[in-house]
Amino acid sequence: MDSSERLTWQQIRERYPDRWVVMADHDVEERAVFAWKTARVLAHGVTRAEAMGRAREALEDHQFYGCRFTGTIRGSLSQQRQLRLER
Fold this sequence. Notes:
87 residues; alpha+beta; four-stranded antiparallel beta sheet; 3 helices
């Protein structure tokens, strides 16, 4: 995996469908603190634990990172709320 390539969220979703992705080096929007244009994908996996495990070594070089699911979150509304809180 080439973690030096910057991708938009749409590109990440197309390249890694229904996967958990660990991203870093977010190119943040100027006026929106939580919005970003591009990021680098450090690792991906079928489960969040798998993705984080694969990224663990690379995360030592990054102070800020995110782990998100590229597919549709399915389940009860309470499960979806819990996932949002854990991110």
